[in-house]
């Protein structure tokens, strides 16, 4: 019987009631008395020398309070980057200044130049049209390989060229890798593009700045996945506001997908302007602004070589990747193509020699940073594509080739610095073959062929490093912050519990799943437990939600805090029952003395803690509230095997995803329904990347795919009903819940199998053989490849 | 959006007067409202045709033509033009339910988006576009991308569709906008076949004369074998180059013939 509460139960998402009834409290729902509105005048050219800004006429327009320009922010800090990469030669990456408002130079379409603050949104927008910019257009740098040429125009005049860093990993392995490839029986080489994406959360970004003169307190309400990170970055590095004078609130957030991790100029602006004008200032992004100001994702150009011996064992992998940084370094941008990508190049396979080279490049485009999966989808895609390509070249079964090379013994230290603690890749592959009904594929292919269609089946495996991350390790790798998390378990007098967590929930369902853990530990109903998140004034600290870390890291902190609470409560219970603490047991919300019929209820103990009339005051303090910080010992390593089955119309190139199956190993699972939902959403995004989504700039740096008229998001009709299974469970060995994280798996694991399936379909036909097609696999691209 | 006045007349005469007075006609607003939101147009006054009862409805005239009043929304046509199934099917597949509940046939034909559905149906059916001033044959109405025979301020009041023996509309959608990347309306009448193509050409909706000739002799997909669209005037964009669109013209025409009923 499935459980109906606690760990393992599919408890219904309690937050959905407010989301589905229009009762959510999003940042744009926050309106403060006296509030002003800001409209940002944004660059409509990609690269220009900005000689001057004439705001005189605009300032005289109705309702205008003040117009800010880059000159107003000269004394203000640069928007900081949170990760320092050291290159192949031991030198630090090039790190340009990132101003709040453009000053002296424009570096991408959409960069904010002026901020018009007015009584209404429309007045601010009207006035922005009256601003006169004096600029000289410069040649734009868009293509990464052109950008690193010696004579390329420079995005940042003060830097040495447009190369941010040239990273080699592991540099000492390079010679051995080159040798192994030279001596290999077969080498498969694949050049590919991992397409640039726009995250497109349903809720665009919003920021409201507020300042209170009476206590010199700044408050920023913002659409963030990690309010404490924003407080640290903006307070310490940009505006110089100490933490105790800066509160950051991220209320309900309508999807993040990574793009709401980062600290953006608009947040710094509204906080700065609220104090300067002594009135609240609000900014709400339009969807058009989101396309040209939210950090984009992916955008890698890669060459990968896979070397095999005569028995088809993988002997070496060598890659060279150009990674687009955009015009400035966004918060985590340098870490994505390096530590979140290079460390995953072993995949699920025991390849002994691996070398990864990454050249990060500045271009006149929107900054690029983490997007669901962040580096790991890029690693998975190239590896799982080149394996499929090798299988085709060698004429072997792609599943068999994978199985033959699986890592089977754990822990396993890869040649790219990480150690997988657990996994069972054979089990997830076996499960996949069952749930995807490989046995019935040939019959389905014949049915498709009878209709004049081609049918293809594609598989891939994936591994990801989640639960980001051990602080001492990431510190060595260049992170400028620790990546632990924190939780406070506050037990109220009558026994209900508020848990303040550093993780932020913006679709993940923490408000439902986290209480399930506490309910399981204490034995009180889930509805007696609430999660509080998203407000630096309410929660102890937190590094936020990304990298599938919430449960593995923050959930672990919560467990540690709850253990402290339970230990203290046992002492109180022992006192109340005049028993020895060591004999106290907690079960189903009651403390009992082992071997006796004596017991007290959870609520009696909590009441005693706050009304300590009969209480061991000499030994313990009143109250029942504990905080824990948790720093993981290792990453977690979710893994799985995915299969996609497509039907292709050879006359038009149209691809329909007919079946999609996912067998994941997430370790232990708290709420299976929420986990399935996370996988579903991730696969939808993966199908989006593989078939539909492509962010395209022209040679002048104009964003061509700047609206939903040209940027295709996946819709319900584009995706099938998924078959997902997470019954293969090898629990994480180093966190108290044995959990691994599931938020990014779907997006990481799905694009390669879709592309593999389309190529299988094409190559099953009588027409031209096709080795590779770059994503997105739009009908026109597929058709063109087949001609 | 810039500030504007709006009038909501309840008769065609009042609407004409308001438009003559400098107003901009607003029908379903599926193009005009996004244009206003993007501040790409700055009308001082909008004249909504939404509340004019005489501009709504689907009927059949004495010649058996399906007559659709100009401000009739797509959903109504989808529901009520069953006597001309291919036409009802065009209307029922435009955009999404929100678009179909607001967008109108008159608005679509007046705008003449090169990727809109209704122009293909009107041209492919040899419809007559009636305005507050005159009647215009479809062959004389479409003058290129976003351009029609309408004079400034002229209102589409009704569109009259002769009902063919068989017809079909085959649409291949652009993945982002879900407008036609290429869509073909084929109609077989007693006196010949009409083939109208939307989405494909830089000059907007057009008739494919060679296909019409071949199909008038032999209304089968096989009659189109070997017939190729000249890619020269095709649209090229992110979603398909000229060669792809030209290829789709032939594929979609064949499918329309096959599925015509």
Radius of gyration of chain A: 27 Å
Helix segment tally of chain B? 10
Secondary-structure-derived class of chain B: alpha+beta
The name of the CATH topology of the largest domain in chain A is: Aldehyde Oxidoreductase, domain 4
Q: According to CATH, what is the class of the largest domain in chain A?
A: Alpha Beta
CATH hierarchy, class of the largest domain in chain B? Alpha Beta
Structural description of this entry:
Chain A is α+β, with helices and mostly antiparallel strands. Chain A has a seven-stranded mixed β-sheet, sandwiched between helices. Chain A has a five-stranded mixed β-sheet with strand order 7-15-14-13-8, with helices on both faces. Chain A has a four-stranded mixed β-sheet with strand order 18-26-27-28, sandwiched between helices. In chain A, a hairpin with a 5-residue loop joins strand 19 (485-491) and strand 20 (497-501). The longest helix of chain A is centred in the C-terminal third of the chain and has 27 residues, at 550-576. In chain B, helix 3 (74-80) packs antiparallel against helix 4. Chain B has ten helices and twelve strands. Chain B is globular. In chain B, the strands form three sheets. In chain B, strands 4-5-8-6-7 form a five-stranded antiparallel β-sheet. Chain B is of the alpha+beta class and 261 residues long. Chain B has helices at residues 12-20, 32-37, 74-80, 85-92, 97-102, 105-111, 118-125, 138-141, 209-217, 242-259, and strands at 5-7, 24-26, 45-48, 58-60, 66-69, 128-131, 135-137, 156-161, 166-173, 180-189, 192-198, 206-207. The termini of chain B are far apart. Chain B folds into three domains: 5-48, Uridine Diphospho-n-acetylenolpyruvylglucosamine Reductase, domain 2 (2-Layer Sandwich), CATH 3.30.43.10; 55-161, Uridine Diphospho-n-acetylenolpyruvylglucosamine Reductase, domain 3 (2-Layer Sandwich); 166-259, 2-Layer Sandwich (Enolase-like, domain 1), CATH 3.30.390. Classes of the chains: A alpha+beta (787), B alpha+beta (261). The A-B interface holds A 122, 125-126, 129, 288, 651-654, 691-692, 694, 696, 704-705, 708-713, 778-780, 783-784 and B 1-3, 38-39, 172, 175-177, 181, 237-241, 243-244, 247-248, 251.
């Amino acid at each position: 019987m499935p459980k109906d509460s606690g760990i393992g139960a599919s408890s219904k998402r309690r937050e959905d009631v407010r989301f589905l009834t229009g009762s959510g409290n999003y940042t744009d729902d926050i309106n403060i008395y006296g509030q002003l509105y800001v409209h940002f005048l944004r660059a409509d050219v990609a690269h220009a020398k900005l000689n001057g800004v004439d705001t005189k006429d605009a300032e005289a327009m109705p309702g205008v309070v003040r117009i800010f320009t880059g000159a107003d922010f000269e004394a203000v800090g640069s928007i900081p980057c949170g990760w320092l990469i050291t290159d192949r030669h031991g030198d630090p990456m090039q790190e340009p200044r990132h101003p709040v408002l453009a000053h002296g130079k424009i570096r991408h379409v959409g960069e904010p130049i002026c901020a018009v603050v007015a009584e209404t949104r429309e007045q601010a927008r009207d006035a922005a049209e009256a601003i006169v910019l004096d600029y000289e257009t410069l040649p734009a740098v868009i293509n990464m390989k052109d950008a690193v040429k010696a004579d390329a125009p420079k995005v940042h005049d003060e830097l040495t060229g447009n190369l941010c860093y040239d990273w080699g990993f592991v540099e000492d392995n390079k010679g051995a890798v080159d040798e192994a490839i030279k001596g290999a029986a077969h080498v498969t080489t694949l050049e590919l593009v991992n397409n640039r994406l726009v995250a497109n959360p349903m809720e665009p970004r919003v920021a409201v700045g507020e300042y209170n003169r009476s206590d010199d307190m700044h408050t920023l309400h913002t659409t963030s996945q990690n309010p404490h990170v924003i407080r640290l970055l903006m307070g310490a590095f940009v505006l110089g506001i100490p933490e105790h004078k800066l509160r950051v609130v991220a209320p309900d957030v309508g999807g993040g997908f990574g793009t709401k991790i980062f600290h953006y100029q608009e947040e710094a602006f509204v906080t700065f302007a609220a104090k300067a004008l002594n009135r609240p200032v609000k900014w709400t992004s339009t969807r058009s602004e989101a396309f040209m100001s939210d950090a984009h994702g992916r955008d890698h150009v890669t060459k990968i070589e896979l070397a095999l011996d005569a028995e088809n064992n993988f002997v070496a992998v060598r890659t060279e990747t150009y990674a687009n940084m955009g015009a400035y370094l966004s918060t985590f941008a340098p870490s994505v193509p390096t530590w979140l990508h290079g460390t995953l190049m072993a995949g699920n396979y025991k390849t002994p020699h691996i070398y990864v080279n990454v050249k990060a490049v500045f271009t006149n485009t929107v900054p690029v940073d983490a997007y669901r999966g962040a580096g790991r989808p890029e690693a998975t895609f190239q590896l799982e594509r080149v394996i499929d390509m090798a299988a085709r070249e060698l004429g072997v079964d792609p599943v068999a080739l994978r199985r033959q090379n699986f890592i089977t013994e754990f822990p396993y230290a890869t040649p790219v610095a990480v150690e997988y603690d657990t996994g069972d890749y054979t089990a997830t592959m076996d499960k996949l073959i069952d749930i995807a009904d490989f046995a019935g594929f040939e019959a389905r292919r014949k049915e498709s062929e009878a209709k004049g269609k081609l049918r293809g089946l594609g598989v891939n495996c994936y591994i990801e490093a989640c639960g980001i991350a051990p602080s001492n390790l990431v510190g060595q790798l260049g992170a400028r912050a620790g990546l632990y998390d924190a939780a406070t378990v506050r037990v109220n007098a009558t026994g209900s519990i508020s848990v303040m967590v550093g993780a932020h929930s913006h679709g993940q369902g923490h408000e439902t799943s986290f209480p399930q853990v506490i309910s399981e530990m204490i034995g009180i109903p889930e509805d007696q437990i609430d999660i509080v998140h998203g407000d630096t004034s309410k929660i102890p600290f937190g590094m936020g939600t990304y990298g599938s870390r919430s449960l593995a890291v923050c959930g672990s902190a919560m467990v540690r805090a709850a253990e402290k609470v339970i230990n203290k409560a046992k002492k109180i219970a022992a006192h109340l029952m005049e028993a020895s603490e060591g004999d106290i047991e907690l079960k189903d919300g009651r403390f009992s003395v082992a071997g006796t019929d004596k017991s007290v209820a959870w609520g009696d103990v909590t009441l005693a803690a706050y009304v300590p009339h009969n209480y061991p005051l000499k030994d313990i303090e009143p109250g029942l509230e504990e905080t824990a910080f948790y720093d993981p010992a290792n990453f977690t390593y979710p893994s799985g095997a995915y299969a996609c089955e497509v039907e292709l119309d050879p006359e038009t190139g149209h691809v329909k995803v007919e079946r999609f199956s996912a067998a994941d190993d997430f370790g232990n699972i708290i709420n299976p329904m929420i986990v399935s939902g996370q996988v579903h959403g991730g696969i939808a995004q993966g199908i989006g990347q593989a078939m539909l989504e492509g962010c395209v700039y022209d040679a002048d740096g104009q964003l061509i795919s700047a609206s939903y008229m040209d940027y295709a998001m996946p819709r319900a009709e584009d995706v099938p009903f998924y078959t997902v299974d997470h019954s293969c469970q090898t629990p994480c060995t180093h966190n108290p819940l044995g959990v691994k994280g599931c938020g990014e798996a779907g997006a990481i694991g799905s694009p390669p199998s879709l592309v593999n399936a389309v190529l299988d379909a094409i190559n099953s036909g009588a027409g031209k053989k096709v080795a590779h097609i770059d994503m997105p696999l739009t009908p026109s691209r597929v058709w063109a490849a087949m001609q | 959006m810039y500030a504007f006045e709006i009038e909501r007349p309840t008769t065609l005469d009042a609407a004409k007067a308001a438009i003559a007075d400098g107003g901009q006609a607003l029908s379903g607003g599926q193009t005009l409202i996004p244009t206003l939101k993007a501040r790409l147009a700055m009308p001082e006054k909008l004249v909504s045709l939404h509340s004019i009862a005489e501009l709504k409805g689907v009927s059949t005239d004495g010649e058996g033509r399906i007559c659709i009043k100009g401000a009739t929304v797509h959903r109504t046509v989808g529901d009520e033009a069953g006597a001309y199934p291919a036409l009802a099917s065009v209307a029922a597949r435009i955009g999404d339910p929100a678009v179909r509940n607001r967008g109108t046939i008159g608005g679509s034909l007046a705008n003449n988006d090169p990727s809109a559905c209704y122009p293909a149906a009107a041209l492919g059916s040899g419809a007559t576009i009636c305005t507050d001033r005159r009647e215009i044959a479809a062959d004389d109405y479409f003058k290129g991308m976003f351009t029609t025979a309408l004079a400034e301020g002229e209102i589409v009041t009704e569109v009259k569709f002769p009902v063919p023996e068989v017809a079909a509309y085959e649409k291949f959608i652009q993945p982002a906008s879900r407008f036609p990347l290429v869509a073909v309306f084929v109609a077989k009448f007693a006196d010949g076949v009409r083939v109208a193509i939307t989405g494909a050409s830089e000059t907007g909706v057009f008739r494919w004369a060679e296909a019409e000739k071949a199909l008038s002799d032999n209304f089968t997909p096989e009659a189109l074998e070997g017939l190729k669209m000249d890619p020269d005037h095709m649209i090229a964009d992110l979603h398909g180059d000229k060669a792809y669109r030209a290829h789709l013209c032939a594929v979609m025409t064949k499918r329309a013939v096959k599925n015509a009923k």
